[in-house]
Amino acid sequence: MSDDEFGFSFEDEDDFAAATTAVVPSGKRDLDHADSEEATVSSKRLKTGNDLKTAPSPSIVLANRILRERFGLNGFRLEQQGAITRLIEGGSAVVVFPTGGGKSLCYQVPAVAFRYQDEELGYRKPGQSGLTLVISPLIALMKDQVDALLRRGIKAAVLNSSVTRDQYLVTQDDLRNGRLDLIYCAPERLNNEGFTASLKDLPGGIRLLAVDEAHCISEWGHSFRPDYLKIARFAEEAKVERVVCLTATATPKVADDIRDAFSIPQEGLFRTTMYRPNLRLLAEANTKDTDYKAKLFTHLRKYPGPTIVYVTLQKTTETLAVELTAKGFRARPYHAGMKPDIRGKTQDDFLVSSDMIVVATIAFGMGIDKPDIRSIVHFDIPDSIESYSQQIGRAGRDGKPSVCMFYLATKDFYLRNIFTYGDRPSLRSLRLLLEDICSPAHANLKAGDTFTLSLYTQSKETDIKATILGILYAQMELKFKLFRAAGAIYNNYKYSVKDANALSRDASPAASAIKKAPGKKGPKWTQIALEELAKSTRIPRADLVRKLDEWNDRGTIQLEKQGVENTFRLERPLPSTPKEIDAIIKQLDEAMEATEKQNIARTESLLNLITSKRCFSRAIADYFGESSDVSEVCGHCTWCETGKQVILPNEPPQLPDPVKVQKLLNTISVRDDARLLAKIAFGIKSPRITDMKLAQKDVFESMNVCNFQELLRVFTKACGM
Ligand SMILES: Nc1ncnc2c1ncn2[C@@H]1O[C@H](COP(=O)(O)OP(=O)(O)OP(=O)(O)O)[C@@H](O)[C@H]1O
User: pLDDT digit string (tens) for 105-164?
Assistant: First the structure.
């Protein structure tokens, strides 16, 4: 099972009645403010203690007491208290605080409060306190949070594929016996039937569901993740008492989507401004002839100190870091394709450095809480205003002056389009997908039956990127209610021994079975047929997997897993007539087209923001519906400082050159997919292009300064479509 293989998922939602549990029955307990006992618990949004004319409510008192006693902090920040007391009182909330604004406490304090209420006020019987389930996509950060909670004596655990068998068993036992206050997992876990079933049966139930990075639930958000839509369905089915959705960025529309998904009323929204008066927001446009690297070097010399330079492509992080180093800067690359230990070292070095420059893709930044980052440079255009604001928000957390520079160039848009147009599958791809799912082999399956597919193979065969396949599956699951994801398993395992002594010492039944397993042994790798081994030894497959994972974690072996197979449980028989199948293809294509348009519009909004005649800070505040937090002009952006508009040079796309079009048609014989040909001309890779080694041909990327839609038109005609 894996948290990070094919993430798919989602939608649906509902109205789980916000718990009716009144929090603190009066007269029952001895909190430190005697006068608070008479206070009325308001169901309305609470103001901070300072704003209240009357005595603080019991839940405010309890929240503050937990903050002091368990977290060692003196007072709440921003809107923390309002959100926390609302949750303690049984309401649900959406929390939009900037990065580092203290969102975690918004679920950690209530999680502890429930047990206080039960133990001190006899609110519930021992073992019936239920727990707080935290869903977060950031597996690495979960572990840090859990360790910090355990140090404070708060019972928390992580459940993901990285835990060892022993930890897993302890956590399961703790869960069953109501010993945990918080449990963390990734959204993909909700695709695992066994896991969701165990959560639905918890003693005391789920008191609070905390959804981190909640903007991922919105198709309007900049990083929509289909698995997020399944969370709302789960919340309803598991009868979760209340929910808190947390995010650092949400436009009013995204916040509405989140509220709708979980039926959270407007007064449950707690938002604080992202506006940071210590950030200077600068922007400059470059023409295609500008020596923009020289400009970057000059800028970095002028503004020394810890800096992040954001670029779009992984390879640019490496080439630019080399060039910066050659110029005497202390620079390192960072992207998701690098080895975890190298990435970790770069991050650790950066955290303690006073002069380091990290040239990074968007992968760098999540969870980096370095107060003295002095400068953020956008060397390429980010995909949206949300990404831009989140990234500049990493500068100057210490409140000291910091500079954010945005370099704008036409070339950036071609680069962005590679992602946007690359994501949309062709009609041919959608048809192949539906034909595979609704194949004759599945024709006799009834509701409740399962079928298994390899999405990895399907991605290659249908020419649909894995991430997009995830979104399509989620739509078929939630919009068309065809089936539900029931789990994923790896079929092929191989390992290479790194510590033979440790391996020979392990005499557990699973270890012995694996060591004795018949399998292909090469000089380095031993292959294991796990399914057969489980059958022949009668040791559950999950035990064998956990043993291999445990050895891998401990460095006893190096493990490689391949061949993920995904299982789906049917909600109804699959469509079988061409008419039904065509209708689904049409709707999926329309949804993909809408996403494509939306992504283009999102980048354009950012371009408009930077190039319009107005204050950047004010424009950002308007975008996020926070206008009242920023005065008319900030006084420290390019517009405010110079009064001059940043103008993107007029470098329009070229028309497709007929000679180049003909050359591409002569080189590539594919005629069943015009979009594929347009992708080759533009320089966009896809599973089929990789498989057919078409990216190595000289026609690949030969028309990368053309308009993609224009290329599509030309090749559609050439294919006679
Ligand atoms: N009321 C408070 N008083 C003092 N420190 C606080 C308070 N609330 C949070 N913090 C501290 O602020 C830091 C950031 O908090 P946290 O990690 O919860 O932020 P976040 O909003 O979740 O950020 P991110 O968006 O990066 O996940 C932590 O070190 C936390 O202990």
Answer: 999 999 999 988 888 888 888 878 899 999 998 777 788 889 999 999 999 999 876 677
Give the tokens for residue 350. Answer: 């950066």
Q: What is the DSSP string of 74-139?
A: -S--TTHHHHHHHHHTT--EEEE--TTS--THHHHHHHHHHHHHHHHH--S-TT---EEEEE-S-H
Q: Cβ(303)–Cβ(403) under 8 Å?
A: yes
Note whether 335 and 315 are within 8 A (CB). Answer: no
Query: Helix axis angle, 616-623 relative to 578-611, nearest 10°?
Result: 150
Q: pLDDT tens across 494-536, in order?
A: 899 999 999 999 999 999 999 988 777 788 899 888 878 888 8
Can you tell me which atom of ligand 1 is nearest the CA of 99? Answer: 25
Cα within 13 Å of Cα(89), Cβ side: 22
Tokens of 50: 């300072």
Q: Token pair of 138, please?
A: 């950031």
Ligand 1 centroid from CA 99, angstroms? 8
Residue reference for tokens 């949070």: 145
* Torsion, CA 33, CA 35, CA 36, CA 40, rounded to 10: 180
Q: Which residues line ligand 1 (CB under 6 A)?
A: 73, 76-77, 80, 97, 99-105, 248, 367, 369
Q: How many CB atoms lie within 10 A of CB 2?
A: 22
